[in-house]
Structure formats: C-alpha cells, structure tokens
Amino acid sequence: MDILIKSFNRPYYLDRCIESIKKFAQNQDFKITILDDGTPQKYLDKIQQKHSEITILKSALYDEKSNAIINKSATINHEIPIDLWVNAAKNSTNYFVLIEDDFWFTAPFNLKNIRLHLKSDNIQMLKLFWLGNSNLIESNYTSKNDLYSIYSPNLYTNNPILFHLIFIFNRFKSRKFFEFFGIYTESRLIDYYKIYATSGAIFKRKYFLKLWKNHTNKTDEGLQLFNAVKYMRKQKKANYFGFYNTEIMKTGFLSSATNQNKTYKDGAIDLFVFNEIINETWFNDEFDAMDNFPDDLNSNKIESILENKNHLLAQAVQWKKWVQKFKDQYRSFGCEID
C-alpha cells in the first residue's frame, strides 16, 4: 500500500512523520512518497539521505515557492498543489494512506492486513485520525472487527442537489430560510464530514479521485462534500466508511506551514521566519525531531532556540501566544488537544 505525505517547508516534522512509519509499520508492504510543494532542496536532500527508501515528487510551483522561501520573499504563492495530490493518487495502489508532514503514527499497524480487510468490506475511506472529536466519526456504527468500525452515515439527505441547496448554496440569504424552519443545522452539516477527510485516512483510490473532481487547485470543502454525496448516491452498495478502533495518529500544534493567525493586538510572529530557524537547527543536527515522541515536539527546546536566536519576527513569547491560539481554534469545535 502506498503512503502519500503532503509536505511544505517543515522538514523537521516530515522527518518525524517518516520515522514514525518506520517505527510502527509491522510489515514492509508499503511505499512512501513525499508530495512536496516548495521545501528548499537542501532540506529535501537531507530527508532523502536519512530515508533513502522514499520517493519525492514536486509540485508544478515547487521552484517558484522554494525560491520565494530561500530569498525571503514578502509574498509566496498560496495556490494548493491539488494536481500533485490527484496525479499521485491516480498512480497509487487501490488503497493508499494520505497524511500531512506534521502527522505521525503512535501505535503499530499492518497495512497489508488492513488492506485485505478494506477490500473485503468494500470500505471507501478509513479514518485513522480525528483528534478525539466524536462529531467526525459515526457513533452508531453498523459492525466492528479487530481493526476498525464500519458505518454508513445517517445523513439528512443523500440527494446531492438538495444537499447543495440546503448546506452549501447561500445566495439571497437562503440559509436563513432553512435555518428558520429547522432544516439547516450545524450538527446536520457536520454529519457530512463523517464521509470526508483531506488527509489522516486510508482512501479507496476511486473515491478519493471523485472527491476532487472539478477542483480548481483550491480546497473547496463544499465541492468535495457535494462530490462525496453524489458518489454515495451512485454507489448504493458501497456506502461504507470506517474508523480505526483507536486513533493511531497525532498531529503537531507548534508550527504551521503558512502565516495563519500570526497577528495579535500585542505583537506578531512570522511563521516563515520561525520555520527557517527550526529548519536550520534541524539541518545542523541541533534539533531532534523525535525528542518528546510520541507527544508533540519538545516545546522547551524550541523556546530555547528562539530565545537564543532572538529574531524580531520570531520571538519566543509571541510564538507561545500563537500556539495557544492555534490550539484553541481546534478545541472550540470539539477536538481534544494535549
């Protein structure tokens, strides 16, 4: 089974991700492919040296983005490399794992055994990761085996046109109409995320490709959910989804690949500067990505690195504020953060 890892400018997390696969994979029946969107070449070279068995594929905008990072450009193209993901999926095994560079496994897994079960049960998507948020998985599953629980979600409607009209379309303030009559509710919308994930799951290739049909190289969750409902409508005998009986993955909350949520009333942090500092420290073998594993990276070590560097745009005190705000975002919609 193929393991596809989305990657962008955080080789320290990518290193941890790959190490966790090698640590917990119970068989060698897999291939790791990195789908990179701009990590400077010297970092990719080090990743390749440490993990010679991997393959690295680059996006069409790789050169533009990596040069912008190296040259500290004030603007970086934020177009998402969906074409890279889709093309990799087209050339993947029938079932494949898709994860982010800041994900890592925390328990043993056997992909060969999982694949045989998925094929037998005709599972379209198996979630490995949901941050403890029960809203993203089905509590009333239909069956369970030693590995995972199977469910066919009870959705408000499986008519794609009606779904789009109620939950996505909002011209002329139509949503207020559906809310007033109790048709549109947030909990009903969240139910549809039980059949959708951008990563942290094992996908059946056909299902994943349908999710991204008609994409315009941007994440449009409304479109992907519409595609999911449309697929389910046509595949009435294959409406099966699942989640691993225990979460076997974690993700990091100590950095981001972009400058989201960087500004505060009392200061700011530039996450590109932050990543450059941590990237270089990791590159020089002064930062061990597996330190504090299986919990998140060693925050005390990162704080010490930032304090020693004392960069105006990456102060330790501002970084800690950013981390808190980043975690609170996820807590606010039901995720469990350490």
Protein described:
This protein has a nine-stranded mixed β-sheet, with helices on both faces. Strands 5-11 form a two-stranded antiparallel ribbon. By secondary structure, the chain is an alpha/beta fold. Helices cover 40% and strands 15% of the residues. Strand 12 (263-264) and strand 13 (267-268) form a beta hairpin. The protein has helices at 11-24, 41-50, 62-70, 82-90, 111-121, 160-168, 174-180, 186-191, 205-211, 221-234, 271-283, 299-309, 316-331; strands at 2-7, 31-36, 55-58, 95-100, 103-105, 123-127, 143-144, 148-151, 201-204, 240-244, 249-251, 263-264, 267-268. It is built from 13 helices and 13 strands. The mean pLDDT is 93. Helix 12 (299-309) packs antiparallel against helix 13 (316-331).
Determine Rg (CA atoms, Å): 21 Å
Number of helices: 13
Percentage of residues in DSSP E strands: 15-25%
Strand order in space, largest sheet: 3-2-1-4-9-6-10-8-7
End-to-end gap: 31 Å
Low-confidence stretches: none
Give the assembly state of these chains.
single chain
Structural class: alpha/beta
Q: Considering DSSP H and I runs of 4 or more, what fraction of the residues is helical?
A: 40-55%
The count of β-strands is 13
Please tell me what the overall shape is: globular
Q: Estimate the mean pLDDT confidence.
A: 93
Task: Report on the biggest sheet.
Answer: 9 strands, mixed
Order of helices and strands: EHEHEHHEEHEEEHHHEHHEEEEHHH
Summarize the structure.
With 338 residues, this protein is α/β, with parallel strands linked by helices. It contains 13 helices and 13 strands. The radius of gyration is 21 Å and the shape is globular.
